[in-house]
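A quick aside before the break. I want you to see a complete sequence-to-structure record at least once, exactly as it would be stored in a machine-readable document. Don't worry about memorizing anything.
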Amino acid sequence: MSFEFLLTSLVVVLLPGTGVLYTVAVGLGQGFKASVAAALGCTLGILPAATASIIGLAALLHTSAMVFHTIKYLGAAYLFYMAWRVLQDRTMMKVRDTAQGASHTRILTTATLLNILNPKLSLFFLAFLPQFIALSAPDATAALVGLATVFMGMTFAVFVLYGACASLARDYVIHRPSVMKWIKRSFAGTFGFLGAKLALST
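That is the input. The structure line, written in tokens, reads:
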């Protein structure tokens, strides 16, 4: 496993996306333990895309416009739903006692769906993982599984860190409801922007 793979993976994982947004939102609203559930869900949501790329289904998404666009629009719709939910659900990002609020199971499920309904993850793995497989590798499939596992482990660790930072910020925003109000609007706007970007992308 090359240093280039580890460095590139770290950069990709660190880039803010829907998973990071959701993990941070949960960390702000419900604390560290809930953010870990979100991080785990986002990580599990990678598994179908990684599996698809390894067994070749990602190639089908790449060649079948109907399949790709169907999944893409489902993902965009879910992002719009998340934007609406952030704005309308008065409890979703409300800073509260950690014993209250959404269950960890519900948080994990929501986070998992965010990544499952992202068709570009399959295309990303299709283009990304093979670059780091040596032509002389005796078992390319095992090598791909190893790279995907490391990528998922790195995702979980980085997202837990994001969640920890967000949970530490609770002490600041809990006494400043106006700050949380603007954070909530920013998150909703970002989810909406990402949904529109996904829906309009080719």
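Two observations worth writing down. The radius of gyration is 18 Å. The chain has one domain: 31-200. We'll return to this after the break.
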